[in-house]
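Posting here for the record, re: magnesium ion.
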Amino acid sequence: MQDSLVKDLYAQYEEGRLSETEIALEGWVRTNRDNGKIGFIELNDGTSFKNIQIVYDGDSVLGEKMRHYKTGAAISVKGNLKLTPGAPQPFELKAVESELIGDVDADYPLQKKRHSFEFLREIAHLRPRTNTFNALYRVRSVLAYAIHSFFFEKGFVYVHTPEITTNDAEGAGQSFEVVTRAKDPYKDFYGTTASLTVSGQLHVEPFALAYRNVYTFGPTFRAEKSNTPRHASEFWMIEPEMAFCDLKGDMEVIEALIKHCIRFVRAHCKDEMAFFNQFVDKGLDEKLDRVLNSDFKVMTYTEGIEILKKAVADGHKFDNPNIYWGMDLQSEHERYLTEAVAKGPVFLIDYPKEIKAFYMKENPDGKTVAACDLLVPLEGEIVGGSQREDIYGKLKEKMEKAGNAEGLAWYLDLRRYGGCSHSGFGLGFDRFLAYLTGMANIRDTEPYPRTYGNLKY
Ligand code: 4AD
Ligand code: MG
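Prediction output follows.
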């Protein structure tokens, strides 16, 4: 007999076509309890967030065997499906045969009590078996698919940009070097210095000038020594780039992408999202509804600074209360603007050019650049985007100042071979997942987080 999958049983049940037949299952014991006469196992087979209840007869030879199955054990069961109208679960399996496939040692750390997220981080190889993390990593998988589906429907071309590169795209000096163990690390392999990419943007821009609308989506690496719930040294980023597109068009795509992903994840992860709403972030459903049903607000950096200054004057306590035009906003400032002022997602635009990357387009005021950061409650910045400087002379000057004009001569070429206005952004995937699920720490939204001072697994 071929194994049934629990996800199919629930789907058949919902469609009203689940029949009371004999089926076989394999899965892992979540709980097992019996009162001598009758026993119940909550089995999870991995295909559904929901368990299936297995019932066994305590007085039988089979019951004598099944009563000893421990939490975490891998088992097989054959039995008869029974619809159970009126019971908490819609159906159950009355066991006829069962085998223990993989037993569990006595020190198995996942017992029936609640475990803290901190504790579970120490056992990243086992946490996908818990409700929270099982839900989380399925949503992560569906969210990745949601991203691709959005761009596929819009005709964007997916470009695989390299992980090993010669440039530090953002120019922030936060890249990891790639070396072998040879004596002269700089000459040993590529004959040049090499680093892990901090952003695929510079490599994806040339493709926008060939296909119009493109994106890259992959891991990026930053040696930021920031010990926060939002920073990891390896994280995934979605970076679209659109030709013949200005900052306004850029923001329209960001907003549409985020709304599409919320709808997609809700449609395909109903049980998981219901779980997050009930156990992780009680206001999650309402929050996501509000995001879907309103337009994202837009605020200039200059307006943001005025609001923050006023907040300080009115007695709001920031760790860094020294607010001035030209400063780089800290996460507490960004969070104030999105949480206390906008009360939802807000685009902060037109930043001082000195605090932003060299490739951003200078505004006519000569002081600011056409940049947009999307700030959301709890996370702060989840998107950084901009219109790109398309005037050859201006870009060259900035790159000479930044010292990368020579190494990135090919990037400058784009401004002299059929250049046009183009824009793009980077959406931090792991932060976005945190926002969608209410899980507050990037050490949880990443299956195997890499953070400053911490490399396990
Ligand atoms: O704002 P960033 O640095 O923008 C870029 O990299 C541009 N090249 C994007 C572009 O225009 N194509 O990073 C983009 C996003 C941030 O908004 C944040 O969500 C995420 O990447 N991010 C991080 N996520 C986790 N850990 C870190 N250390 C992150 N650094 C940035
Ligand atoms: Mg940024």
